[in-house]
Amino acid sequence: MIAVAAISLSACNSNDNQTKDTTATTSDTTQTEMQANTDLNSNNPVNDVVTSYLQLKNALANDNSKDAAAAGSEVQKAIEKADPASFPADQKKVFADVKDDAIEHAEHIAANANNIEHQREHFETLSKDLYDMVKVFGTGQTLYQTHCPMYNNNKGANWLSETKEIKNPYLGSKMSTCGEVKEEIKQ
Q1: b/e per residue 13-35 (b: at least 16 CB within 10 A)
Q2: pLDDT tens digit string along 105-137?
């Protein structure tokens, strides 16, 4: 009887150790996969552009033209820093199509720290360029394409946001919640 109990106890401990080993291996694998995904996302050249763009969007939503100018300068630098040599063909094409235009609009935003309406005009086109980039490159985060129907004499305009909550960069404090999410972009 003692022998049977010892064998059973030994088998349970062995089984428990195998479970712990399996759990540790699974945990290590999951951490490795998460790190690999993080590394892939951090190597994405559009991530720096999107980060700066979101700072720009938030500055405009807060009616802060000076912070918008600084963020516009960061958008410009991030785009210029991206090296398309390593991009796949579809990404190269989109990047080439929007690069110069996006830089020009970011420069205008940066150069007009005292003219928020002019910044917002350029933000509209910059937002179109960023949307095209994000659709092809991804970002590793969920973004929302949001639409304001009242901007530009009711012609409307879109922007990208990191939240579903509406903070309108085109109308700022005048109508901060004007707009609706049109598309969720999951990456």
Answers
A1: eeeeeeeeeeeeeeeeeeeeeee
A2: 999 999 999 999 999 999 999 999 999 999 999
